[in-house]
Structure formats: C-alpha cells, structure tokens
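re: ur question from the group chat, yeah i did fold both. here u go
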Amino acid sequence: MTQDRLPRFIGPFAAAFYTVGWTIGSAVFRVPGQVATSAGSVTASLLLWAGGGVVALCGAYCYAELGVRVPRSGAEYAYCYASYGRFVGFLMAWCVLFSTPMAVSAVARAFADYFAVIWPLDEVRRRILAASVIAVLGSLAAFSTRASLRLAGLAGAGKLFALLALGVTGLLFTGVHPGAATAAPPVSGLGQLGPAIVAILWAYDGYMAAATLAGEVREPQRTLPVGLLLGLAFIAFAYIGTNIVYFHVLGFNGVATSEAVAAQTLAAAIGPRAAQVIAALVMCSTLGTVAAQMVGQPRYYLAPAEDGLFPKWLARVSPHRATPANAVLALAAVAIVFVLSGGYSALIGVYAIVGYPMVALSLLGAVALRRRHGPPTGFSMPLYPLPLVGFVFGIAAMCIASIAANPIALVYALFVPVTGTLLYAAARRRGAFGEEAGTGS
C-alpha cells in the first residue's frame, strides 16, 4: 500500500499551508467579475462566495472522515475502491486520468497569461511557457517530495500575506468608484448562474488537498481534520475579504465589468503600475499551486496502479528519493498535452463537469462504509449526514447550472463513465484486472 512505502512526515500545519498553497491560485484574481455579472448585486455575489465556502466545508468534513477511515494517498479513488469495489474504483481512476491534468494545465496556463502582461506573448508562446512550468515543477516533485512541499507551503503563506496586503491597500482607498461602461445584467435563471457557480467551486478546488497525501501524514486521525479545516478557514476568509475589498474600491459595476479585477483595484488605489504588480503576484501564486498539484495529483495515478487497475510501473517508488517519480512524470506529460491544446476557461469548464460528479460519488462512500463498519473512530463528520447532503446538493446545482448554460457539457459528463465502463468490461474479459478484490475498511 502507498502508506507503507512512502514516509509519513507531514504534520497538521504543513498540511494546512499545503492546502492553501494548492487552492489559492489565479481564480480569486480572475473570476470575481464573472461571479458579479451572474449574481447581479454585491449581496448576491458575496452570498455565492460564502455558499461556495459552505459547500467546501461540507466536503472537508466528508474528506476528513473518509481520510481517517481510509488513510491512503489517492483520496477519492481510495474511497471509491474501499466503498464500492474495483469497478467504481476504476471509474474514479479513469476520471482522474483526465480531470487532474486539466486542473494542473488550467493553473499553468493562468501563469502564462499573467506573464504576458509583463512580457507580451502570442498564443503559441503562452502554451509553450505553461508547458515548461509543468515540466520544471514536475521534475522537482519527482526529485524530492519534501522540497516541493516546502515550496508549496511557503507559497501558501505568501499568498495569504499578499492578499492581506491587497486588502489593507484597498480598504485604505478613499477615492471614488471608477466609472463603468455598463451595468451587469440581472440574474435571469439557473443558466445565468452556471458560470458563477463553476467559477466559485473552481476557486475553492484544492481544499481537499491534504487528503491526497493521507498516506504520508503523521497521525492521520489528527492531522487530516486539522489540515483540511484550518486550510479551508484561511481560504474562505481570504476569498470573501478580498471580494469585499474589490467592491469597496471599484463598486459593483466596476467589478462586474472588469476582466482583471485585482489589477483594476490596485490601479485605482496605487496607480497605473498596478497591472504589473498584480501580474507578478498571480504568477507567484500560480507557481505555488502547480508545485502543490505536482505533489498531490500523481497519487491519483499511484494508488490505482498499486491495486492493479493502472500499469504497475506507475506504482514504482524511487528507493533513494522516496518519490513516486513515474506517476509524477506521467501526470506532467498528460498535463502538458492538455495545456498545449486549450485556454483557461475551456479547461476549467471541462474539469468541473467531468470531475465533480465522481467526487460526489466518492464521498457518498461514507454512507456505505458507515453501514458496513459503523462510525469511524478518531474523527467523524459532525451532524451526519447533513455535510454530505450539503456537498452533494452543491455539486448537483453546479452540474445542472453548467448544463443549462452549456448543454454540450452533458457530453463531457457522460464521456468518462461510459468509456470507463466499456474499457473495464473489455479488460475484465481479457483477465487484465484479475479477480475482484474485497473492499477495504
């Protein structure tokens, strides 16, 4: 098992800052205008951001319980395998084969887009730069897990400090709101909210980061709940506070009509060089996120390979460096293919509709495991099953809103389970997966 072959050295605060380093990337600097446009008012916008935090909190409670019960790296895959068996475990693994590289690609692409603010680049060069970031940070993660975690943790602390500085600067602003060309349209239905819900859940994506390394944390019963919940508290406070600052400086129309809300906020507060300041900030932020992703995401390849569902070479752990180098480099290669093929918005849209339904299914495994073994010892989600219901409801709302806004998204949502089922059936007929194994506890 993963937890037997990789050293357990991650403590609760390291897990919390790793979570922050993974989660706070580019979204808080890019998507508040999109959210405001869909929401139609300051109050509705802030409620959507708070609602995203509530959905993430519900998910964090679920991850904490499942991570304590199934302390393996691989998070959602490990939960599906333990709860439902090899077939659903394979579907989850097949899903993350596509969705996790998309997440890495989207953040690396955001780095390239903001680099282009300082040094103009055409589309081809942006894709090449993003691919280079993935290659470099993937190589670092393959070389040393500890070094990558230190980089991600420092980035997490730095992001909180930078957002605090942005908040103080904005709150000291005493000028008038800049004029806006047009007001945001009012909300006209669920389809109108679809882009906002996807954007907010994308912004919170990563709050479960500590669970991906469950096989490498010390004392999982204590470390995982503290790391998940403390990290999420930092993130939610930073997101809501930053949006309050944006509205304070720019007013509602200014935020709703801005495609670079953080840069425009700083421009109003400190002058025209703000675009380069915020570009540098986002570049540092996204580098930290990719560094964190290149540690956690490969565990989604490693765990299925250990169970015989992915090629065995992906399960190899370097005996000298104690890193799953093959899994890291495989993820980096797939992410590079994705980043060379599309832009930021397309990547996060596909990632959300492909990944989140399977995430909800994996967390519903808590019900099956409780029925089989009773509540876990060490940590169990409070007010069970309300956090689970809240998370699944939030994911269902996101999926429905996404499909209402873009019906073609349904094709993406069905692609993974349909192709995964066909592939699993074909592999079983050839005996590729061997006999069905019992589920875990």
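okk and heres the other one u asked abt
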Amino acid sequence: MASVGTMPRPEPRVGALMIVLAAIAVAALWPSVASLADFWRTTHDYQHGFLVALVSVVWLALVARRRWRERAQPSVAGALLLALLLAGWLVALTANSLIAHQLLLPAITWAAIWAACGWAPARASLAPVAYLYFAMPVWDYALPVLQWLSVFVTETLLHAVGIAARVQEYTVSIPGGTFQIIEGCSGKRYFMVTLAVAVLAAAFNHLRGRRAIVFVLIAGALSLLANWLRIMIVIVAGYLTDMRSYLVAVEHITLGNVIFVMLLAIVFLIARRMAPRAPASGSPATENFPAVPTPAAASPWGAILPLALLALTFAATRARATTSSVDVAPGELPLATSTWQGPLPARAAWAPAFPGAVGERRAAYVSAAGAHPGVVEIYIGTYGAQHQGRELVQYGNTLLAPGPWHRAWPQVTRPLGSSQPELASFEAQSANGARWLLAYLYDVGGWRTNRDALAQLAYGVRSIRRPAPSAIVALAVRCHPDCGAARALASAFWDDMSTQILGMLPSERANR
C-alpha cells in the first residue's frame, strides 16, 4: 500500500505519444505540409497524395493502438537525430529548397517518435511514416529514365513486329503519322502508384523480409510493362487504321485507366498468392504480431525534449513568417574616368534574367588605354527576403540571355581575377553566334562564393533568424577574336574595380 501523501508517478504511454507527436510534427512543420497540400491539389500526377496521407495516418493510428499501453523509453540517439533533422529542415526552409524540407517531414516525424517512445515503437512506425514518400515529388527524378525506357522499348517492339519506325529523342515516326512519348507517357504515375499499392498489399498480407522485397519489385516491373503495352496498343492502332483509330483521333486515356485497373487487380492477386500460410494452430495475428513486452518504468520527462524541439521549430517558423524585411536595392555604380570610363549604357546583346530581384543595375565600362582595351558589361541583382519564385538561386535565373545561348557540356568554370574574392568564369555562345566570356559571384550577407549550392545553403543558414540581403555580380566580355583577350580584360577590370563594386551591395552598406 502506498504511503499517505504520495502520488503514483505518471508514466508516458507509447500509443498516446505517437499520436500526439505526429500531430505536433504536422503543426510544427506547417510550411512543408501546406506546400505539399498545394502541390497535390495542382499537380495531376500527384493528386493521389491526399489518399496516401490518409493511409499513412490510419496505418500509424493502428500501430499506436496496438502499443497503446506500452511504456515509453525515450532515446538520446533519437533526440540527437531529431535535433539534427530539425536544424536541416530550418536551413532548407529558409533557403527555399522546397523538395528538401518536404522530404524531411516524414523523417522528422519518425525521429520524434524514436526520441520520445524508444526504438521498438520507432521501428514499428517506420513503414506508415515512410509511406508518405509515395506522395513526394522526389519521383520526378525518375522521369528521364522512365521516359527513355519507354522510347527504347517501343522502338524495339515496333521493329520486332515488323513496323518501320524512326525514333528521334522522344518522337516516334511510323508510316502514316508521328507520336510524341511525352512526360505523361513515361509511366511515372503508373510506377509510383503501383509501388504504393504494392507496399500496402504487402503489409495487409503480412509479407515480410525478402518475400516483401521480391513482391514490390515484381509490382514495379509489371507497372512498366503495363505502360509499354499501353503505348504499343495506341501506336499499332494508329498504324493499322492510318491514324483514324479512336485511340489516336479522339483519346486514349480510357484505355490507360482500364489497363491500370487490371494492373492493380493482378498486383493484389499476386500478393494473396505470396502471402504466408496461416499456422495449423494459433492465431495468425499472434504469429505475425507477437506480444510487445512491457519495459521497466521510464521517466516522463524524457519525452519532453522532442516535444520542446518541435515547439521551438514551430515558434521559429511562425516568427520568421511574420518578419518584415526591408527590400534592399544596390547602390549607385561607381564613376570611373581614368583607366576605365563609365558607367555607360549597357548593350542589349547581353541581358541576364533574374526574376524577383529587388533592384538591378546594368552598365558598361570601357578601357580605351592600357594593355587590354575593350568593353566590360556588368550586371548586379539584389534580393531581400527570398520566397518561391523570388530567389537568388533558382531554375529560372540565368546569365545566358536574351534568347537561346549555347554552353559547352560538361559545364566547367575557371577562376577569374587575382584579387579576392575570385569570380567563376565560363565561355558561351549567344543566339547570333557571338562568343562571350561570362563571370559571376554571389554575395549572401557579406559572405561570398561562386557556387550556386553554397550560396543557397548560406542564405538558409544566415536567414533562420531574419532574412539576409543577397546579390549576384556578373561580368560579360565579347570575345574578339578569341576569349583569351576577353579574359585578360575582365581580370583587369575586376582587379581595379572590385572594391567599389562590392561596396554597392546591401550587405556592405549594412555593415558600415
């Protein structure tokens, strides 16, 4: 009997903690959740994302229900992993790396469960949490491979059945017409949805270990075969009817849906056939899900750390979302009247495109004397608080504009200038065939680099508390007749004028 005045110590229970942690993780990482929901709503190939999320939640709830009365055993290793992942998530969020902070959402949720509940519950929750990755845009990286495979297999099969076909990149030409094997024909959606269904079928049918892996691989292979069959049916139908078939002249989406339903039915049938047989005696549920041992009592305070880390992350994201940042424009270009003359009007032949830049400066400087006469074009673009579509480093930004330019592959850069910081330089050819030497440098809060990834990472690290001003400085020199003289001219300009030009940047003015 307990002595008078003493109260039983509360003991954290795994089931309740798993549910609470998942809910808090969703709230703390709300930018990732909101961006994923918007992505699922607007992107056709990922509209199954809401269903995947629902399956993941229900699956995790079933795991939590089974372990409801188990005592939690908080893990120091789990807490360290959680802290590391949250730090990486904050950097990815502030660096506007959408795919990075989205991919960290399930990993952080799982690490929080490990930190608060212990290794055994974390291992049990790994599958339902990781199931979210079937709705992540990471599958887009498989698109080029799947598209190439579709073209290669289609060409091979057409030749095998005696249909003359000419293939150029993603275009298949046959007597009577031409077909485009576009991204939608790559089978990406077939592939990722079939794998998601296969994983769920494996869990439902108690497939484990090597048997589960073999089953999922079979399902993936069948999804590829189904997509190739769909493409072949459409092309052969066009060939036999001189392009007048309903599948060619009207639509073939219905055909794809019918094949996909048949594919899923076959996957479920294979799962049933591969399911382990129930033992002669005993419950199958007991065989596949042994009773969970009850560990010794643990301190209730061990679960507070992961909860506190998630709460601090939520506070940091909310504070940053409400932070107002003054947009910063570059200062005036330096006036040069001796060796260099300028600033003069920039030429239209080179006009970099950096959408969303707060302020831009373009000009030209002329060196009519000295060992390296010529014209140096300069561009400066500055950013304050960066957001999606308004970033220093993003896909839409380019120094190779206007019009289509050509740059040698693989893309190699060389340092330019003897003074620090060095610019990265490369050669390119404009739309009219003229050759240019281009050089560039990124500035993030006063820290400089000529590497895109490092500039984005630096912005993420420096902007956790408040947005850091950033900028790009770029030079361009027309090559006459080769780029050796252009490189010497650009190097001389940067050695002479870099101090004044860098002094225009908002980070320099803020530090004065």
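fwiw on the second one: The longest strand covers residues 374-383. Residues 141-274 form one domain. idk if thats what u expected
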